[in-house]
Amino acid sequence: MDFELFTNILFATLRTGTPLILIALGEMVCEKSGVLNLGQEGMVLMGAALGFIAAVVTGHAGLGIIAAILAGMMMSVLFAFLAVTLVSNQVATGLALTIFGTGLSGFLGAGYVGMAIDGIAPFPIPLLSDIPFIGKVLFSHDPLVYLSWVMFALIFWCFRSTRLGLTIRAVGENPEAANAIGIPVMKVRYGAILFGGAMAGLAGAYLSLVYTPMWSEGMSAGRGWIALALVVFASWKAERILLGAYLFGAASIMHLVLQGLGFEASPNLLAMLPYGATIIVLVIIASDAAKAKLSTPLALGQPYRPQV
């Protein structure tokens, strides 16, 4: 494997892992507040569809990103109303949201299937992008890759050093105790859910406006589900989410690399690599249930009814 090929693999790994970082970070914040939202796949698809449609109609990719974020937030508001206000079962509500988002995105985007746009171009950072090896790998990406790093840094700092992070964790560990000391549990959970929806919508915009600047039904390819597994695998820690997303990104492109190197195997078998890696991760998690339980927010998925 030559040096240029290795550089390109690392570059592609960062691009491939970006949507997973965005989805998983948003879901981590949501779950830290005690809410389990399994509707990530539907929110990503809605973001991808409406973001692409807005970009085509307006001719501005930036407006497409805004539309995608709003689409994710609108879907998350629906989930929050059912799961938080009406105290419905969070698992069932999240699954229904995924089914709803998958169907609605396919319906809305039916007239745009196969339509391609220019999308968001890479933005090499002056001077830094000229550094050998590092410049290509780290400083020659599109703006959304850089934004994913900024969001990671902010979320990492928030839960490590701020009162807001402590508040979200308190709500996710014991909402009754948090309410007793004056924390507005419902508002915190609504805010966390909205943030998760915005991040999922942004990930959808990345898929349809950057990664493959076109729309096709089901283009998320299960990334919402993989991000959910990634949050558990990372033990609800932002730095582990970053690492896990890039590991999955590497697994996702290796089948193309191996085919290019002449590796004798079925292309379909090689394409299973990232999903096989996800299954292995889940098996590892299940093998140490006690450790996983220690990292899990205590009130995750449990209904909360405010005292009146």
In short:
The protein contains 14 helices and no strands.
Question: Could you explain how this protein is built, in words?
Answer:
The protein has 308 residues and is an all-alpha fold. It has one domain (3-295): ABC transporter involved in vitamin B12 uptake, BtuC. The protein has 14 helices and no strands. It has helices at residues 3-32, 40-58, 61-85, 90-108, 134-138, 143-161, 163-173, 175-180, 185-211, 223-233, 238-260, 267-271, 273-287, 289-295. The longest helix is centred in the first third of the chain and has 30 residues, at 3-32. It is globular and about 60 Å long. The mean pLDDT is 91.
The total domain count is: 1
Globally, the shape reads: globular
Largest sheet: none
Order of helices and strands: HHHHHHHHHHHHHH
The oligomeric state of the chains shown is single chain
CATH architecture: Orthogonal Bundle
- In the predicted model, the low-confidence regions spanning at least 5 consecutive residues are none
Assign a percent range to the helix content. over 70%
Task: Itemize the secondary structure elements and their pairings.
Layout: H1 3-32, H2 40-58, H3 61-85, H4 90-108, H5 134-138, H6 143-161, H7 163-173, H8 175-180, H9 185-211, H10 223-233, H11 238-260, H12 267-271, H13 273-287, H14 289-295
Helix pairs in contact: 1-6, 1-9, 1-10, 1-11, 2-3, 2-4, 2-9, 2-10, 3-4, 3-9, 6-7, 10-11, 10-13, 11-13
